[in-house]
Design brief:
The chain is α/β, with parallel strands linked by helices. About 20% of the residues lie in helices and about 30% in strands.
Amino acid sequence: MFIATRNIFIQNQSFTLTNQRAAFWEKEKALILSDLHIGKTAHFRKNGIALANHIMKSDLERLSTLIEYFQPEKFMVVGDLLHAGDNSDVDEFCTWRNQYPDIEFYLVEGNHDRISKSLEKKLCLNFKTSILHMDGITFVHDFDTAVSGFQITGHIHPGIILNSAVKSIRLPCFALSNNQLLLPAFSEFTGLDTKNLPKNSKFYVFTDAEIYEV
């Protein structure tokens, strides 16, 4: 797996965007991502739709590679860690999580994160909240118009359509505006929303080999 990077500045602080659907916050040594949707494949299988579980394994392998690359002290999920509560995929995620006991695990809850006290303990969360304020930046799953200042969000699964003379392609992206960094969905088993993107944004589109501004 190749990791391409692009540095941006938010509130005079350095953030590194990657082509692997995550960002790294240098000051806090934090790996930041959103929308893992752990348990989605197991949920589909439970409802009679046959899906291989290699999709989640691939997501976790990418995450392990990012941890090895950045050596973070914090692991921050900006909503939708889970997809449908507790299931066999969550067990596999917890086994993966236990490989990194020294990394603090922060969860900003999303609309899919229905987490009981027992499941919270199982997930080995260090911190769980619906909104997180840290160093002048607000982390919330979906952009909150009632909150002032800069927000880092997820939820939308942003994507861009690029047109050429031959064909159109849809690619995931980061969207950066004056008051928001919208993260791509980390899981590759998600759709792309190319319509409900923040206005007046710069878009950082990525492929397996590069990340660039459009």
